[in-house]
Specification:
Distance between the termini: 70 Å
Largest sheet: none
Strand content: under 5%
CATH architecture of the largest domain: Orthogonal Bundle
Amino acid sequence: MSSSDAVPGGGGGTEAATGRPPIREALVAAAFRLFLERGYEQTTVDDIVALAGVGRRSFFRYFPSKEDVVFPDHERCLADMTAFLARSAEDDEPVRRVCDAARMVLRMYAENPAFSVQRYRLTKQVPGLRAYELSVVWHYERALAAYLRGRFAARRDGILRADVVAAAVVAAHNNALRSWLRSDGQGDAGAAVDHALGHVQSVFGSAQVPPAGEQTEDVVVVVSRRGAPLWRVVQEIETTLGAR
């Protein structure tokens, strides 16, 4: 497998028309070739631009740092996910919607299994990249939670529920995704993620969400002695409701 085989699909433009890969994709290909040959820590930005045949300024036009070249597609995926959630309709079941949003991340990985597996192995070897990846995952989780907070705003503990569901979606998705990456990208990643997200939907997705602005009703439970006359039970209910 050549390094070019492991590069995420990219746009065309003038460079593609001349037979050369776009600069962004050329930089990613050069970076991963050097990471595999020399190691991540031993590779510098100057090494990458020299192999890609571009200037140092070109690198920083596309990537703020060396870490960013390892995750070249996450910024786009996060933007796509945020836009997908923003297009949600009022009658969309919110837990199902965030599960569908999480599947967008899976599709990004599945577009190029070879590259995704290379990145997974590299990230495991370099603690700094692992920390960077966790920050990327956190941004995905925050995007899901922000949408759910809006949908659960009328609920008691709506913020808590939104954050718990968002964390559960990310955990389920990543559990299946990492299992697929550990298998070198073999098998049906989509089916594995669907199975994992199905657990989240079965736990959190059944409750109905009240329309925005509508307050949920309290449930009052009154305990009365067996055999108490009906008028006494009614009196206890009225007393309880009046005390609220």
